[in-house]
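Lab notebook, page 48
Experiment: co-folding of the full assembly
Goal: obtain a model of how the components sit together before planning crosslinking
Operator: M.T.
Materials (sequences as entered):
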Amino acid sequence: MHKNLVDALLPTGALIGALLLFGLFVWLGGVSPVETWVLLFRGAFGDWFSWQNTLTRAAPLMLTALCVALPARAGLVIIGGEGALVLGGLAAAAVPYLLPLPGNVAGTVIVCVAGFVVGAAWIALAGALRQYRGVNETISSLLLAYTAIAIFKQLVEGPMRDPATLNKPSTRTLDEAIRIGGIMGSDVHCGFVIGAFACIALGLWLALTARGFSVRVVGGNPRTAQLVGLPASGLILLACALGGGCAGLAGAIEVAAVHTNANASLIAGYGYAGILVSFIARHNPVAIIPVAILFGGFGAAGSLLQRRLGLPDASVQVLQGIAFVLILASEALRGVDWKAAGEMFRRSAMPREVPLNSSTKPT
Amino acid sequence: MTNPTDASRRRTLAQLSAVSLATLSPFALRLAAAQKPLTVGVIYVGPRDDFGYNQSQAAAAAELKKMPGVKVVEEENVPETAAVTKTMTGMVKQDGASLLFPTSFGYFDPYLLALAAKETEVRFSHCGGMWTEGKHPKNTGSYFGYIDECQYLNGVIAGHMSKSKKLGFVAAKPIPQVLRNINAFTMGARSVDPKITTTVIFTGEWSMPVKEAEATNSLADQGVDVFTMHVDSPKVIVETAAKRGKMVCGYHVSQAKLAPAAYLTGAEWNWTTAYKTVVDAAQAGKPHPNFLRGGLKEGYVKMSPYGAMVTEPAKKMADGIKAKMLAGGFDIFVGELKSNKGAVVIPAGKSLKQTDPALEGMNYLVEGVIGSV
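Observation: model returned without errors.
Model output:
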């Protein structure tokens, strides 16, 4: 109970600390900190419009964060989710070129599955390179992301280009019927629900199933895992594929819900933002949901802050930077025995006893 | 430009909170609308002080702020994703904007069009040439300038100043707008000396400073001594070229401040003309100007002042052509024009006016350009 309280207080305290520091920062720049705090809150969570704004921005981040979190639980540091995302988006846009799609939900599902499969294969490739060829997966996944972007551009600006898109090369637009719309008339598209569902489902999978447990064992100590007979390579590839699939799905949803076709605007850095989200959430799939919403909130609040106070975009990035550094630093306080620390502090604060036969004389 | 202590911002804030109170009652809103100043939202894809495309738009927004009865809200670094939908909606719903200038090309389809269909009372003015009669709604529109005229004049100056007879063009993507600038620049230079060539490097990105610097260095190594460009922010190219002791012709806005000793002249946007036309119409309640286009003559583009090193004959020739352009008697794309692959792209005796739709789909590089699409 006490431990849970500390667990919850640490990130909250870090966030409050960041807001205070940011207030000081804008105050030095001549802007009222109170006004800034009010606008930050109003922009991110103030009303229904702000909530929609925040949730829309959070939607792709949950899925790209899973691309980091799942392999991390299997002991891999994968940072190339951007590559899986753009290829997933490309695959979604490519399906109608290859086969006629039914103009209903089935079409949407096919498009999303295509994105998932391509993303899964891409990150599994990084996992396989590590398991079978000894290539560091962090570097290879990052480099594969550049390769993916190059492939994306080559195809979008070449064979898949819709000739009508003169000054902004794009693929042909997805049929209206298979696009993803908002949830119950809101601006928040179904990608948010899919993302949250994926986070919860994969969180439960890791926590409750034997396979999920095996993945965590491999992540904790691969040698032990092999000693007890777990197929480490297979489990690592599975975690990579699931993570990459999520990022690929994020790309497919971006295409089907937002862009309507694949073009260079898809390369918006969601894959890289996902790395940060996952690390803040300590690679816990369920914790990714609130962190992604917080992240989306920063985006939404930053938008209002720029418009109302004329602050440059960089100011919100400063806040975000302070917040995440403090949250990560506060992790160092986790597991501290507060009673012992207090005792130590009290002892150091007490006047030191001076032995009677000491040569030092009081002055 | 972004001084947060500016007293008018505080006032704006106070007014805004008053407006948001007023929105509580629809009756009060209608009353307020009668006296409410026109709120204009301007959205940039990059930073407002990028010495490039976004700064050229921000300069016009700054001019709007000086107009009576106009309030400007701005947001920078807005990507062409769901974020721009949110920014546009926020400007309408939270700030009460009734006229928007989403300035990046990729904002138009699907974001601007989707919102314009919902917010029929709001006017949208998009930078680029996308608006088409009959296809797009009346509350949307586009504005753009024939900046290839300025690139032609850049070429004339570059042609006079180059000693190596090799010019360099650092470009983002091989799309019609960019190809048109490369071709105009090259033709301007070759009107001075037909031996001149322009070597072009495409970086593939609108903003990729590392590749832009690499391209500039690589061109300098190949003997290029005058540079120009078409990327979102020419800053890095101008600075790199100046560091290498080469000359530059600027683009988007004047980069003279960055390299006074290397800056010959430049092709600049003058968006204020378009912005004011659109705002005037909105204030007077006249129909939304849907299609705004113009070159030097109409005041949509302008040239940077010549650098001190530009020679008299160069100035004289460029000024002569500029005078003809201002009088409307100069066409850049005149036959017979060959592509750099030898094909005739404009037959002899044919001359394309700036407004000709054939120029909008340009997909070739002219003779004298080293590079391929």
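Interpretation: The CA atoms of residues 13 and 161 of chain A lie 50 Å apart.
Next step: discuss with group before ordering constructs.
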